[in-house]
């Protein structure tokens, strides 16, 4: 069995920082594309803002009361009306095409190598590896004292993180046991609601080893802010060793009826 010291030694690639203004470093192809789309929107928004600013300044200087004491009464300029109708349409088309491509890429799930079932509860997550080991366990947020002891970030570390192999397609099936929750990892570009009575599906393919953090992203009750998600991305060999150890460690959970099993 892989020693816990070796498995948990990997530090997080990125956690939220004070005064942070950009995304955390992407760790999946989906998040890479989300950043590219965000960058495109930033260029377009900046260009529009600068154009509007320049137009306002030009009008203030060219058509102020001192220069034109008698206002112009010109109206119904057909050329201007065509321009301010057609140009926004073109801009929206330029935005729509990569947007639709990104949505399709996120929805078109490749064949999964690993399937993890995430059940949102008030206020923790239960994970099932039904197809990869056939076991389940609860994942609760750490107290401040335990987080300090384990050198985990406050409100993000958990007692039992999920473990997945690097460069493998991981399917995440989500549902809720009580109210609507949301399973979200910013660096993976993943956010999927966990709705009671319904199974939603999302996926990611982590390309970098490390520890990644997320939180429930749906207002789910009084302790919504204390429902973190922690994912360890390890090598295939380390993942297989963890699976072997987890089967023994969480064997008792198989007899615990607290979890409503996912069905298809």
Please specify the SSE layout and strand pairing.
Blueprint: H1 4-7, H2 29-62, H3 78-107, E1 114-121, E2 124-129, E3 135-139, H4 144-150, E4 162-165, E5 170-176, E6 181-185, E7 190-194, E8 200-204, E9 210-215, E10 228-234, H5 236-249
Parallel strand pairs: 1-5, 4-10
Antiparallel strand pairs: 1-2, 2-3, 5-8, 6-7, 9-10
Helix pairs in contact: 2-3
Please, could you describe this protein's structure?
With 264 residues, the chain is an alpha+beta fold. Helices cover 34% and strands 22% of the residues. It has five helices and ten strands. The strands form three sheets. The protein has a five-stranded mixed β-sheet with strand order 3-2-1-5-8, with no helix packed on it. A three-stranded mixed β-sheet has the order 4-10-9. The chain has a two-stranded antiparallel ribbon with strand order 6-7. A hairpin with a 5-residue loop joins strand 2 and strand 3 (135-139). Helix 2 (29-62) packs antiparallel against helix 3. The longest helix is centred in the first third of the chain and has 34 residues, at 29-62. 27% of the residues are buried.
